Amino acid sequence: MSLSVAPAPVSGSLSAHVSGSAAVPALPEPLPVLGLDVPAPLVTGGELPYAALDYAASAPVLRSVWDEVAAYAPYYGSVHRGAGYLSQHSTALFERSRATVARFLGCREGDEVVFTRSTTDSLNLLASALPAGTRVFVFETEHHAALLPWQSAGATTVFLDAPRSPREAVETLESALSAAPDGPKLVCVTGASNVTGEIWPVRGLAATAHRYGARIVLDAAQLVPHRPVHIGELGVDWVAFSGHKLYAPFGAGVLAGRTDWLHAAEPYLAGGGASRKVARGTDGGVEVEWQSGPARHEAGSPNMIGAYAVASACRALSEAGFARLEAREVELTRRLLAGLDEVPQVEVLSLFGDDEGTGTGSRAEARAACRVGVVSFVVAGWNSSHLAAALSAEYGIGVRDGLFCAHPLVGALLGAGGGDTGGCGAPEGQSLNAVRVSLGAGTPEEHVDRFVRAVRELVRDGARWRYRTEDGRCVPEPGGTAHEPGTGRVPTA
Length: 493
What we know:
By secondary structure, the chain is of the alpha/beta class. It has 2 domains: about 10-55 and about 320-475, Aspartate Aminotransferase, domain 1, CATH 3.90.1150; about 65-320, 3-Layer(aba) Sandwich (Aspartate Aminotransferase, domain 2), CATH 3.40.640. The chain has helices spanning about 10-15, 65-70, 85-105, 120-130, 145, 150, 165-180, 200-210, 230-235, 260-265, 305-320, 320-340, 365-370, 385-395, 405-415, 445-460; strands at about 40, 45-50, 50, 110-115, 135-140, 155-160, 185-190, 215-220, 240, 255, 275-280, 285-290, 345-350, 375-380, 395-400, 400, 435-440, 465-470, 475. A 7-stranded mixed sheet has the order 4-10-9-8-7-5-6, sandwiched between helices. It has a 4-stranded antiparallel sheet with strand order 13-14-17-16, with helices on one face. It has a two-stranded antiparallel ribbon with strand order 1-2. α12 (about 320-340) runs parallel beside α16 (about 445-460). The chain starts with 11 loop residues before the first helix and ends in a 17-residue tail after the last strand.
């Protein structure tokens, strides 16, 4: 099987015990993140330290990132806007942050880094810069941020069916590109699924795209916090990601890669900073000479603190070493999958299925090595919103439930097209949403162990509280009654 980023070998000390009941050796300490001491009140009384297992949505902030931003804050000034000391200092730091991100991504000579608001913003920026007549190829398995911008930009979009193996993904793309007419072509693909966590064969897809004269943009939102992403080694033309998934707050994102389409396009936002010269025209209108380089698409006062936070996170992950971080995450993911495997009612969602992993060791170990720390699942007899609400209210665990802004993918995995989930009670028939648990460099072992224990207890004994649907969400019933575990699930309103 061809992976986009080869998993680092798991050392003998981590893989020696693969049974769910066997003793597991101590792991390296997680990276320090904010929020580990936040108390989560429980509906059944008392509180527990909040277990943040929703990294795929927004990762907690690295302590080192927060400290660096706090140290810089007194020196904040408007970037590219003034001759004063603070403005000059901030401008220099902003451009150094750009260079740090470029090194982190292995940018090639001539590539550039544009700071945006998020992955969504980055991909919409690229969509706005497509040459006329561009045909965009995108799998139905993509996050909506990668699935939707191309249509809005007026491009011809070719949606590809969900592949069921990495090999099929490459073959599907090759078949589509070989039948495409001449003209500019772009392929958009994820690095790791935000639903299943499975790593995609980016190198193979990039080689296929280039063989047929197409360019390729990598949605690295879920990959870049977990694995090294090197533009040159992967062979992609652009990479897009979000800072808030990379342990950096403040709403910043990145689009990095080739410059020609970006420089030929009208600015993504028209305004100060994007314009080099503005004058009244002879016809009474306005004549504009636009900037080249990143400034062309960074109009307005940039998010200086957000860009600095992204650069700080890039440095922190590089200094920690991805080999160490990956080995730790693979073991935690293995432990998570092994625990879920012990609950017969749980079905872990997988796109590539038995083609996920090969080699020796447990099934959970093989699957963990071929995905980042993102796992989605459904439980027979449970609506996913109900399970997620009970995990939060009764165990202090934060997960995500729903369709994860990837409706076609979840629909394909569940064999359904989406729709009303029927409230937070156990629905009649199949639930049309799922539970997603996700972890990362700051996840303590206790959080994973607590989650596995909680799922086991909830499936075996039922929730200990009454829940109701309110504004489309499953929430604990105010003044609801608790019951002893083992007496059956409390019915919902």
